[in-house]
Specification:
- There is one protein chain.
- The chain is α+β, with helices and mostly antiparallel strands.
- The chain folds into 3 domains: 157 residues, no CATH class; 35 residues, no CATH class; 166 residues, no CATH class.
- The chain is 57% helix and 11% strand.
- It is built from 13 helices and 9 strands.
- A hairpin with a 5-residue loop joins β2 and β3.
Length: 388
């Protein structure tokens, strides 16, 4: 709410936020500083230019923050339940905004004492108008009109009579989603939070939040243990997938002749033509092998990125895995496919061996990073050579 009130009070223009323009502003500021260093006589002029650019940049960022806030409040207003609305606010970065549903009315409150409430069907279009720029709260005239618009529709905006600007000692809290937040002593932490102290290991799981105290700096935390176990399981699953592909692999599956024959068999089957049993069995075996190999590539990309990507980026990543090809003319040749398959298995075994060593030695995350940075940790190529 502070950003909203500040913009209304100041009445200054709110430029449209543009990422490329903001980046250009940053580069211009850097260039201005370089010119100041090179030409002392122009220092005053350069400082004036830089100050103006910084103000424009900050104004653009404030406008973007207002747009973000209006979007969050608009979606929270339309939420089906208070819990869903609070999650939306938290996801947008406003976990401190309080939300209550009272019949058809929605009530927003902040730790600073501001409060906005009114019918949901009236609040929603108001936030949308701010988000879309139809209402410019930086313009005093529009801000006054906006307040009149709100009053006519039963929307109440109560501002705190007096802001407490005195410095307050901060206290650290651990939230239910395993985040540490520092809040003034006069601010209530999110529900379910517990005081944070050094020597605390926090684990968040399906059963809730578990806290282990008395942890020394050199102890392995549950999070590090979980990360190591995840790496081990991921490597073991990769090995299992590759071994399943290897058991069904035949060099002719990656040769043009056999693949063209399989495509022809499939085409005849689609047209309802009689397919000899031997050809049908060959097609079935090939498709099972192809499915496993394509699934391996898809899982590899998902584990590596965890998100969608462009076709070009996916094509680049699949080069690291044995590629069976989707069409008869695509994919690796037999020699390349087998070489990739053997190497992936070997590297996965080396990775599992390394993480099992970390687990068995009880190494902390900081110790692991130190070993890697210093070069003491054996690279995968060296580990794989020992496995041979």
């Amino acid at each position: 709410m502070d950003g909203l009130n500040a913009l209304i009070a100041q009445g200054r223009p709110a430029p449209t936020f543009d990422l490329m323009k903001s980046t250009g502003n940053a580069l211009a500021i850097k260039q201005a500083q370089q010119q100041v260093d090179a030409y002392p006589g122009e220092q005053a002029w350069q400082q004036k230019v830089r100050g103006r650019q910084e103000k424009q940049w900050m104004a653009a960022d404030e406008q973007q923050e207002l747009t973000n806030l209006a979007t969050a409040l608009g979606w929270a207003t339309k939420a089906a339940t208070p819990e869903m609305g609070k999650k939306i606010l938290a996801d947008f970065g406003y976990p401190d905004i309080e939300l209550k549903f009272e019949g058809k009315n929605v009530n927003f409150g902040s730790v600073d004492g501001d409060e906005i409430s009114g019918p949901a069907d009236q609040l929603a279009p108001f936030w949308d108008a701010i988000k879309n720029g139809d209402i410019n709260l930086s313009d005093p005239a529009q801000a006054m009109a906006a307040r009149s618009w709100m009053a006519a529709r039963g929307i109440s905006w109560k501002q705190a009579k007096k802001k407490d600007t005195a410095d307050r000692p901060l206290k650290s809290w651990v939230t239910p989603d395993n985040k540490v937040v520092n809040l003034p002593n006069n601010v209530t932490p999110p529900a379910g939070s517990v005081p944070y102290s050094t020597g605390m290991d926090i684990e968040v799981g399906p059963e809730g939040t578990k806290i282990r105290t008395g942890v020394k700096p050199g102890d392995v935390t549950r999070k590090t243990q979980g990360d190591i176990e995840t790496k081990i399981v991921s490597g073991q699953e990769q090995i299992a997938r590759m071994q399943a592909i290897l058991s069904e692999f035949k060099p002719e599956y990656q040769e043009i002749g056999a693949r063209l024959g399989a495509a022809w068999t499939g085409l005849k089957a689609k047209f309802g033509r009689d397919v000899p049993k031997e050809d049908a069995d060959t097609l079935i075996a090939f498709k099972k092998y192809q499915r496993k190999a394509i699934e391996n590539i898809n899982l590899y990309i998902k584990e590596l990125t965890g998100a969608q990507m462009s076709e070009k980026e996916a094509d680049r990543l699949r080069l690291a895995q044995p590629d069976p090809g989707e069409k008869w003319y695509q994919g690796d040749d037999p020699i390349t496919f087998k070489a990739k398959m053997d190497d992936v298995i070997l590297m996965a075994r080396a990775s599992v061996a390394r993480y099992e060593f970390y687990r068995n030695q009880g190494l902390t995350e900081s110790k692991i990073r130190q070993l890697i940075k210093s070069g003491e940790a054996a690279p995968l190529n060296e580990i794989s050579s020992r496995l041979k």
